[in-house]
Amino acid sequence: MINIRPVSDLRNKFPEIEQTVLTSGEPVFLTKNGYGSMVVMSIEQYAALTDEIEMKLDEADLAAAMTDSRYTAEEVFGRARKRIHERKTV
After folding, report:
1. Which domains does the chain have, with CATH numbers?
2. What are phi and psi of 51, to 5 degrees?
3. What is the three-class DSSP state of 3?
4. Is the pTM of this model over 0.85?
């Protein structure tokens, strides 16, 4: 279940929010004046979201260092759009 709390709880009930995040493995969404403000999550949760991206960026940096070939933004995003479109039509 999504856990939504007012941002004031971060100050007033930090230990409770910390315990919730660490034991449930789920983020806590914080609101300010009724609107989404931020998300609190454990380092493990954050790493699970970002580790693969970081690894792929490192691979891209290594590949770029090994060649002088460069692509424009239009070429890169055009290829990405084409692949996305091909997946949708399959």
Report:
1. 3-41 (3.40.1620.10), 45-89 (no CATH)
2. -60, -45
3. strand
4. no
SS3 call for 28: strand
Tell the burial category of 35 from Cβ atoms under 10 Å away from its Cβ (0-12, 13-18, 19+): exposed
Categorize the per-residue pLDDT at 65 as very low, low, confident or very high, splitting at 50, 70 and 90.
Answer: very high
Closest CA to 2 of 12, 59, 31: 31
Going by C-alpha positions, the residue among 14, 17, 38, 41 that lies closest to residue 27 is: 41
Task: State the maximum Cα–Cα separation within the chain, in Å, rounded to a whole number.
Answer: 55
Map residue 20 onto helix, strand or coil.
helix
Residue 87 pLDDT grade (very low, low, confident, very high; cuts 50, 70, 90): confident
**Distance separating the N- and C-terminal Cα atoms of the chain:** 34
Phi, psi angle pair for 68, to nearest 5°: -95, -5
